[in-house]
Write a structure and sequence with these properties.
The protein is mostly beta strands and 170 residues long. It is built from one helix and ten strands, in the order H-E-E-E-E-E-E-E-E-E-E. Helix content is 4%, strand content 43%. The strands form two sheets. Strands 1, 2, 3, 4, 6, 7 and 9 form a seven-stranded antiparallel sheet that branches. Strands 8-5-10 form a three-stranded antiparallel sheet, with no helix packed on it. A hairpin with a 2-residue loop joins strand 6 and strand 7.
């Protein structure tokens, strides 16, 4: 079944991914404005509590993002002091550990299967995080937060990212 899925959905296979691991297309929602008097990075917007593609939150709906991984994307709608979420499923034939690199300008958080695994508090070209994948479907959520100025994100299976910073910043 996994082989048929990979043939029917070639974009789900990322270069460098372990055999038996596939990635669904990213879904995105936002930007969410900072609540008055609160830090938007620490504030838990609805996607942190539930993923429901049929719902709208603060006027926002989930949208498929057909963008290649391994690239720095800076053409996103992310005004100052706002948050944006990316979600995808990763399916693993067997339990596995997978290191990924999350880049951001300015901050980011990452959850896998509801467990927060990463917090990045400064611009990063690619901060490494190990994902402990369970056999079957795994739910990946990434929060990108823009303080001011430039805005960007990247997701890669290698520390090298095209179109921007290429070294791991930490």
């Amino acid at each position: 079944a996994l082989a048929r899925h990979r043939e029917a959905n070639p974009e789900s296979v990322l270069p460098g991914a372990p055999e038996g691991v596939t990635f669904e297309v990213w879904q995105a929602i936002g930007p969410f404005a900072r609540p008055k008097g609160k830090d938007g990075f620490d504030f838990a917007y609805p996607p942190e509590g539930e993923i429901d593609f049929s719902k709208r939150y603060d006027g926002h709906a989930w949208k498929a993002m057909h963008r290649p991984d391994g690239h720095r994307h800076s053409d996103i709608d992310l005004p100052n002091y706002t948050s944006w979420y990316l979600y995808r499923t990763i399916t693993a034939q067997d339990a596995a550990k997978l290191t990924v690199y999350v880049g951001c300008d300015d901050r980011a958080k990452l959850w896998l299967n509801g467990r927060q695994l990463l917090t990045v508090m400064r611009p990063s070209g690619g901060t490494a995080v190990e994902l402990p994948l369970s056999a079957g479907e795994n739910r990946l959520l990434v929060k990108i937060y823009n303080v001011t100025g430039g805005k960007a994100y990247s997701f890669s299976l290698t520390p090298k990212v095209k179109g921007g910073r290429s070294k791991e910043v930490g």
